[in-house]
Amino acid sequence: MKENITIHGLSFRPYLSREQIAVKVAEMGRLISRDYQGKRPLFLAVLNGAFVFAADLIRACDVDCAITFIRLASYEGLNSSGTVKTVIGLQDDLQGRDVIIIEDIVDTGHTMSQFIPQLEQLGPASIAVASLLVKTEALECEVDIRYVGFEIPTKFVIGYGLDYDGLGRNIPDIYQLAD
User: What is the reported pTM?
Assistant: First the structure.
């Protein structure tokens, strides 16, 4: 892991190494495999941030599964806007299917609290959320996150798919905004 890195003039310090992330993703994959044994869940990855985590997580799951993608937008710069916009919509039929939403990070919870009720209207058998990162202290909405990778403080993070205004997604480790 590099020491500090700079993106768009802001300094970020090392927070979670790729090795720590890999161990946690493997653990999450084992839990999902156990819970969905004999089922065929549909993973619904939220773009853009969750694409790296989604790829690693489905490879860590030992169940027959499918994956599709949706793009929701709620961030502007460093802050959540509080409004969820669907940029790329869902094309799959969810009727009677077990759905696992893959999120990179749950911050305020607004995105999931607005999105899950929309999914419920499509008749899935079940909906679960798997999020690599959860900012527990920042949650403003009650969201049931069944599979949590890491609970983190409210500082802004980048890397492993997470970005700051488009940059940093390709960094294999996670960095936190420096003080």
Answer: 0.90
CATH at 91: 3.40.50.2020
Supply the pLDDT for residue 80. Answer: 53
Residues 121-165: tens digit of each pLDDT:
899 999 999 999 999 999 999 999 999 999 999 999 999 999 999
Cis peptide before 48 (omega within 30 of 0): yes
Domain that holds residue 61: 19-150
Residue 168 covered by a domain: no
Indicate if 107 belongs to the active site: yes
CA distance 39 to 47: 25
- Identity of the amino acid at 83: T
Which of the residues 56, 104, 107, 173 is marked catalytic?
107
How many C-beta atoms surround the C-beta of residue 95 within 10 A? Answer: 9
pLDDT tens per residue, range 107-129 = 999 889 988 998 898 999 999 99
What is the count of structural domains for the chain?
Answer: 1
Is 126 within 8 Å of 98 (Cβ atoms)?
yes
What does residue 134 show for φ and ψ, rounded to 5 degrees? -135, 125
Calpha distance 81→159 (Å, rounded): 21
Residues 30-76 pLDDT 10s:
999 999 999 999 999 998 899 999 999 999 999 999 999 998 765 55
